[in-house]
């Protein structure tokens, strides 16, 4: 665990943090926020920031977000700074530690932060198979491709793998390839030298160097531009990188994990993803099933989120009623675990009493779970489609509808008159008469082998 203490807290925190971690923490210090951010920019990473509560914590968190540096912040201050503590939490600090510091409290906070990033809650056999495979390969150096729908927990299982790897004591660095503009992603990954481009006011160490010795997660790698993929492939193969504007290669020692919510084999066929890069990344594939295919996890995760958000909002412990559990299991959850978490957070806030009933579990549009489940069922979808088609026919003449039906069927058969007549249940002569009529009216009629509108 790498800790960075920011502000005039060095004397009060250093001894306590080392005691809390039994000497297993690497503690660094920065007298100001500016120096701390410069240190992080230079690649001197940290797993947790301990910050004087009287400093500009909101500005620090904003600066970290602007630099795309994701590190949890814990505020520290004397117990009388109640208002400052509240402001720090509102600004985004994870916790508040009162001073003088208690080694056991610091250990608990650090353990909570570490657990938050590496725990993976599961109960369903479908997910158990994935986790067992993850544990089996965690100790290797193999690259892993983690696939699944958005919200299934791909980044969480990546952290789970890292925490059980030989590199667990080294950095885990994540880069969201979809969230960073294409023009900035190369610099984000490989770093840049001062003056390499407009706005490069200082050398910036990239994520490859920052992760050296540890694990680099390339989140949503399918969104990376194909031109940058070639440079990434070289970095993975040769374990060297070139900073933007640099003059010499830089060696790196990393393990690569990557995630994607798209089918990369299809992306290869479309030409938007390099096949050789896919081979390099996909040594092992962990495919996460969507939440609807792992019902055993739904109740366990729901209970976890209820406890989490009741505590976070200062509310008494609450439980899910049997009816609420049943409704949660039957819901479709297209947004997977992320949607489930948001829904249970909302339920905690909307419910009253000791139990959360199905009435408190609603989607953002106000629809209840039972309504959502019915709307997502195949029968409901067919009914909605039929209703939409019926509405589309209202106000049109029979002749117009007949013409569109005939021409659409002819389009389906690639202009084959005999096949179209058989599908429509009319004679070939009737079909030809209709087509001649449409041609006389100026409507384009496809020739055999021709798609409609291709003329």
From TrEMBL:
Q: Which organism is it from?
A: Devosia salina
Alphabetical list of InterPro entries matching this protein: AAA+_ATPase, AAA_lid_NorR, CheY-like_superfamily, Homeodomain-like_sf, HTH_Fis, P-loop_NTPase, Sig_transdc_resp-reg_receiver, Sigma_54_int
Q: Which UniProt keywords apply?
A: Activator, ATP-binding, DNA-binding, Nucleotide-binding, Phosphoprotein, Transcription, Transcription regulation, Two-component regulatory system
Tell me the SMART domains matching this sequence.
AAA, REC
**Which stretch is the leader sequence?**
none
- Please report the stretch or stretches of sequence annotated as the Sigma-54 factor interaction domain: 120-349
Enumerate the spans annotated as Response regulatory domain. Answer: 2-114
Q: Which PROSITE patterns would you find in this protein's record? A: RESPONSE_REGULATORY, SIGMA54_INTERACT_1, SIGMA54_INTERACT_2, SIGMA54_INTERACT_3, SIGMA54_INTERACT_4
4-aspartylphosphate (modified residue): where? 52
Recorded hits in Gene3D superfamilies, A to Z, give: 1.10.8.60, 3.40.50.2300, Homeodomain-like (1.10.10.60), P-loop containing nucleotide triphosphate hydrolases (3.40.50.300)
Task: Name it.
Answer: Sigma-54 dependent transcriptional regulator
């Amino acid at each position: 665990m790498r800790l960075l203490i920011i502000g005039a807290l060095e004397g009060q925190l250093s001894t306590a943090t080392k005691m809390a971690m039994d000497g297993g923490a690497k503690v660094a210090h920065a007298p100001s926020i500016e120096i701390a951010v410069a240190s992080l920019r230079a690649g001197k990473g940290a797993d947790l920031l301990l910050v004087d509560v009287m400093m500009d914590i909101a500005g620090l968190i904003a600066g970290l977000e602007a630099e795309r540096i994701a590190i949890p912040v814990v505020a520290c201050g004397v117990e009388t700074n109640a208002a400052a503590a509240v402001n720090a939490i509102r600004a985004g600090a994870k916790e508040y530690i009162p001073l003088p510091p208690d080694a056991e409290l610091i250990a608990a906070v650090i353990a909570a932060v570490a657990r938050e990033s590496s725990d993976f809650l599961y109960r369903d056999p479908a997910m158990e198979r994935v986790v067992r495979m993850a544990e089996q390969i965690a100790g290797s150096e193999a690259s892993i491709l983690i696939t699944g729908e958005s919200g299934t927990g791909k980044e969480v299982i990546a952290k789970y793998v890292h925490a059980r790897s030989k590199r667990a004591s080294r950095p885990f660095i994540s880069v969201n390839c979809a969230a960073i503009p294409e023009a900035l992603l190369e610099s984000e990954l490989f770093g840049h030298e001062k003056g390499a481009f407009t706005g490069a006011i200082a050398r910036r160490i990239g994520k490859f160097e920052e992760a050296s010795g540890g694990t680099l997660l390339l989140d949503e790698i399918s969104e990376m531009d194909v031109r940058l993929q070639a440079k990434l492939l070289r970095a993975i193969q040769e374990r060297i990188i070139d900073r933007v504007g640099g003059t010499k290669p830089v060696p790196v020692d990393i393990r690569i994990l990557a995630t994607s919510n798209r089918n990369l084999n299809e992306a290869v066929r479309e030409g938007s993803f390099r096949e050789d890069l896919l081979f390099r990344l996909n040594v092992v594939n962990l495919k996460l099933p969507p939440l609807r295919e792992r019902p055993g996890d739904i109740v366990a995760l729901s209970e976890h989120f209820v406890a989490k958000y009741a505590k976070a909002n200062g509310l008494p412990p609450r439980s899910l009623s049997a009816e609420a559990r049943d409704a949660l299991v039957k819901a479709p959850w297209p947004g997977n675990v992320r949607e489930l978490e948001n829904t249970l957070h909302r339920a905690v806030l909307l419910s009253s009493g000791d139990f959360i009933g199905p009435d408190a579990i609603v989607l953002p549009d106000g629809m209840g779970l039972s309504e959502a489940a019915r709307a997502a069922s195949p029968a409901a979808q067919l009914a909605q489609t039929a209703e939409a088609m019926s509405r589309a026919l209202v106000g049109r003449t029979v002749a117009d509808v007949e013409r569109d039906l005939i021409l659409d069927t002819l389009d389906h058969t690639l202009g084959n008159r005999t096949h179209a007549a058989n599908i429509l249940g009319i004679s070939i002569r009737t079909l030809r008469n209709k087509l001649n009529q449409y041609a006389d009216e100026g409507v384009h009629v496809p020739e055999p082998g021709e798609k409609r509108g291709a003329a």
